[in-house]
Write a structure and sequence with these properties.
Elements (H helix, E strand, L loop, with lengths): L1 E8 L2 E8 L6 H19 L7 H7 L9 H16 L7 E2 L2 E2 L2 H16 L6 E6 L2 E5 L5 E7 L2 E11 L1 E8 L19 E8 L2 H13 L4 H4 L6 E6 L4 E3 L13
Antiparallel strand pairs: 1-2, 2-5, 3-4, 5-6, 6-9, 7-8, 9-10, 10-11, 11-12
Length: 249
């Protein structure tokens, strides 16, 4: 049995796909997961004037007085900055922006709620970033072609973990080199798959900021990446599990 739900959250479609012999109580749990994503959006959205992140950006709130979840995310962002050698940094020219970690973190929190359904395989997709938990049979998830968003560029089987993509197709040029403050436009997208949706999100953002960062991605234990260049060609780490042609056709 399969069931799916879709809602517009955090400015993007958020879909839940459940697979199992019985899906009793699924509607209630799915709504709890959506409520958690709404809570995260209220706290962290850079587009909401009343979010705590927006208040931090304006200097109306100090981190020590922020919600415990905000403090948790800020600590994780600092951990990510250090682990990425500074290529992931939320202190941007436009102000504080933890978005490159928050979405993956939020997806994992929502996934944990959905996994309360016993014997049910779960796939949660929020704006193309995905978290999966299954009993063994993978969900095959698609990565869109950043040059033609109607096409699937790669298909990736995921049993457990996450997949995240950073690129220019949805939000335009928005990722900056944290060392120079200059916008990065040297690749079209970077996708990363691995055991954590949050860290896949972080590593994809950091690799994009590096201009692709394929050699660097290859050094990350348990994570693999796919880089789409501006001319449409692709390159991936040796362990990349997806199927992608050298040039999309």
């Amino acid at each position: 049995m399969r069931r799916s739900w879709v809602e517009q959250l955090m400015g993007m479609p958020a879909s839940v796909l459940l697979r199992g012999e019985r899906l009793d109580g699924a509607d209630e749990v799915v709504q709890e997961a959506y409520d958690e994503l709404r809570r995260v959006d209220r706290l962290f959205s850079t587009y909401r004037d009343d979010s705590q992140v927006s208040r931090l950006r304006r200097g109306e709130l100090v981190p020590a007085a922020a919600d415990p979840l905000v403090r948790e995310v800020l600590a994780l962002c600092e951990e990510a900055r250090e682990a990425s050698e500074g290529w992931f940094d939320i202190e941007l020219p436009g102000g504080l922006d933890p978005s490159g970690l928050v979405k993956g973190w939020a997806i994992e929190r929502a996934l944990a709620l959905l996994c309360r359904l016993d014997g049910v395989d779960v796939c949660l997709n929020v704006g193309g970033d995905i978290a999966v938990r299954t009993s063994g049979e993978p969900f095959v998830v698609g990565i869109e072609d950043p040059h033609d968003r109607t096409r699937v560029l790669a298909a990736v089987p995921v049993v457990a973990g996450g997949l995240a993509t950073s690129g220019t197709s949805a939000r335009g040029t928005h990722i900056v080199d944290p060392h120079t403050g200059a916008a990065v436009a040297s690749v079209a997208s970077v996708s990363v798959v691995g055991p954590s949706a949050m860290w896949a999100d972080v590593w994809a953002t950091a690799a994009f900021a590096r201009g692709g960062g394929l050699d660097w991605l290859a050094t990350l234990p348990s994570y693999d990446g796919l880089v789409v260049h501006l001319d449409g060609t692709t390159a991936s780490t040796d362990g990349w599990p997806g199927m992608a042609s050298e040039r999309p056709v």
